[in-house]
Design a protein that fits this description.
Mean pLDDT: 93
Low-confidence stretches: 1-11
Pfam families: COQ7
Protein name: COQ7 protein
CATH class: Mainly Alpha
CATH architecture: Up-down Bundle
Number of helices: 6
Number of strands: 0
Distance between the termini: 41 Å
CATH topology: Heme Oxygenase, Chain A
Radius of gyration: 18 Å
GO molecular function, one term: 3-demethoxyubiquinol 3-hydroxylase activity
Pathway: Cofactor biosynthesis; ubiquinone biosynthesis
Organism: Dasyornis broadbenti
Structural class: mainly alpha
Strand content: under 5%
Length: 192
């Protein structure tokens, strides 16, 4: 530019003043990882059950997860948050969990959905509490996103129950194992 003036391109960044950067970094990092993992789970389920009667239902839930991931990709840029270094692991683990649960049949896939979405809904509720305690007005947009996604996850949970998730052999064992995995993934993805 003439006269030595600098040109500043438009940015999608959020003003960083006054935000609790460590808290926001952890929230966005782990939520991005979770939505990435959910996409991989549904990809695995569709690989096995995509042409079955439950395929369109799985696809519908997956489409919502794709929208969630897209939004967290945008938020990562806006808030300048780095992704977890564990994404390559979640890529494989998510697909294996999705395909593995689908190999148990429609009920197995739905049991996986119930377990994961119940864990994520609880996780989102914890984040909502944290942001409200911090400053609900300052984090208004992020709160709206998390509340909407939590509601979507609860809907997926309910769809799983409506499609006989609880009729899966060893349902409570499977659900507990998946939820322990979710808790570990959340813990690690917030930090690494």
């Amino acid at each position: 530019p003439a006269g030595g003036a600098s040109l500043r391109l438009c940015s999608t960044r959020v003003a960083q003043e006054g935000i609790n950067k460590p808290v926001i970094d952890r929230i966005i990092r782990v939520d991005h990882a979770g939505e990435y993992g959910a996409n991989r789970i549904y990809a695995g389920q569709m690989a096995v059950l995509g042409r079955s009667s439950v395929g369109p239902i799985i696809q519908q839930m997956w489409n919502q997860e794709k929208d969630h991931l897209k939004k967290f990709n945008e938020l990562m840029v806006a808030y300048r948050v780095r992704p977890t270094v564990l994404l390559p692991f979640w890529n494989v683990a998510g697909f294996v969990l999705g395909a593995g649960s689908a190999l148990l049949g429609r009920k197995g896939a739905m049991a996986c959905t119930v377990a994961v979405e119940e864990s994520i809904s609880e996780h989102y509720n914890n984040q909502i509490r944290t942001l409200v305690e911090e400053d609900p007005e300052k984090y208004k947009e992020l709160l709206q996103v998390i509340k909407q996604f939590r509601d979507d996850e609860r809907e997926h949970h309910d769809i799983g129950l409506e499609h006989d998730a609880e009729a899966t052999p060893a349902y409570s064992v499977l659900k507990t194992a998946i939820q322990l995995g979710c808790k570990a993934a959340i813990f690690l993805s917030e930090r690494i």
